[in-house]
Amino acid sequence: MPVNHPPIPYSTESEIEAVVKGFEDCSTPKDDFTHRLHLTVGVWYLWHSENLAFEKMRDGLFHFLQHHEVPIAKYREDVTLAWLDLIKQTMAECESPVSLLEMTNHVIDRLGDSGLIKK
After folding, report:
1. What is the pLDDT of residue 30?
2. How many CA atoms lie within 13 A of 68 on its CB side?
C-alpha cells in the first residue's frame, strides 16, 4: 500500500516525525524515499542527536536498502557524510530560537536540489 507523505513545506512536526518513522520501519517504499525525505531524516537526526546523526543515518540507510532489496553498493559513505555536513551548515544559518518545523523547511528550501553534491 502506498504511503502518503505530507506536502513540503511541512505544516507540523508530526509530519516530519512520520517521515522518519516511515524510513526507520521501512514502510516508505524505496521509490518514495526522495532526496527531500533524505534531508528531512538528516535534519531530524542532527536536531535530536547530533553526535549520533551519522551513525543513525548510515545504519538506517543500510537497513532501508536491505529491506527493499537494493544492492548495498548503492550506499556511499562519502556522500552521506557530505550531505550531513551540508545540512548541519545550513541549520547553523538559522537564528535561534527556531523550531524543528522551521529548520526542516529551511533546509529543504536551501538544499532541495540533489545535484548540489556530485556523486
Report:
1. 95
2. 21
